[in-house]
Design brief:
Blueprint: H1 18-23, E1 30-33, H2 41-49, E2 56-59
Parallel strand pairs: 1-2
Length: about 70
């Protein structure tokens, strides 16, 4: 609808990339299925520096993903 909280993210990829947009989700958990792309190293480091390294994780099966844990 173009209204509400999502409106703030419109056109964000014109000036940033997905790794930085993902970092804006801090402290929400982020999970990658299998390999973490190298471009997300900065985001992973940010989570670690801000004290939530366990919120940024790699999983091997989709069944391992639990929202809020």
């Amino acid at each position: 609808s173009g209204k509400g909280p999502a409106i703030e993210m419109l056109n964000c990829l014109q000036i940033t990339d997905l790794a930085q947009v993902t970092a804006l989700m801090f402290p929400k958990p982020v999970a990658f299925l299998d390999a973490i792309p190298p471009s997300y190293q900065w985001t992973e480091n940010l989570y670690e520096r801000l004290g939530e390294p366990k919120a940024f994780k790699k999983i091997t099966k989709l069944s391992q993903w639990h929202i809020g844990k």
